[in-house]
Known about the structure:
Elements lengths: L5 E4 L9 H15 L5 H5 L6 H8 L9 H19 L9 H12 L4 E4 L5 H8 L7 E3 L12 H10 L6 E5 L2 H10 L2 E4 L11 E2 L5 H9 L1
Parallel strand pairs: 1-2, 1-4, 2-3, 4-5, 5-6
Helix pairs in contact: 1-4, 3-4
Amino acid sequence: MKHIQAIIFDLDGVLCFTDQYHFLAWKAIAIQEGIEFNQEINNHLRGVSRMDSLNIILKKAKRNYSLSEKEKLCEEKNNIYRSYLLKMKADDVSEEVKDTLDYLVRNSIPLAIGSSSKNTMTILGQLGISRYFNIIVDGNMISHSKPDPEVFLKASRLLGIPPKNCLVIEDAKVGIRAAKEGGFISAGLSDAKNSPFVTYKLNKITDIIEILKEAN
């Protein structure tokens, strides 16, 4: 049985849900550029960095884009996305998420965020849940996005707890693969629980509490 000393949470799709905002922002860019974009393509962008997401979308483009053009499109997408994020509020955090975080804090479990999003601080601020986390590592602090384990390894290092004793909570298969590559225990929600590399499968986020009780 694994001994869990800390938990590292992905953000989007785990503690909150901003997929629809990403979809709407990327769709606006795709329409602007005359590129096909749908929900199926959007599903491939989960857990992937902004530039990597754009490169996936541009596979449908009829021309090649320069790096400067790509950077401009990424900035435009982020501005649209942020306009949606600024409408988020504390009520957007589910009771299950609040109950889980409250339980973990009461039981003195160190918590971290390990997200590839560069908007992590904005989201946490809008939702009012920053106080729960000892460490926050986001896309502004890493050079490689998932499935590279850098974001989780940095969180582990800052927590001062080895990967083998950190439980990573993810909703995307690419995040579970990153956890596996970094030597972490993992728990998967949504599509992530179908990963062949996942340690625990979650039906709901409160299942984390039962995992902790069994593991420790």
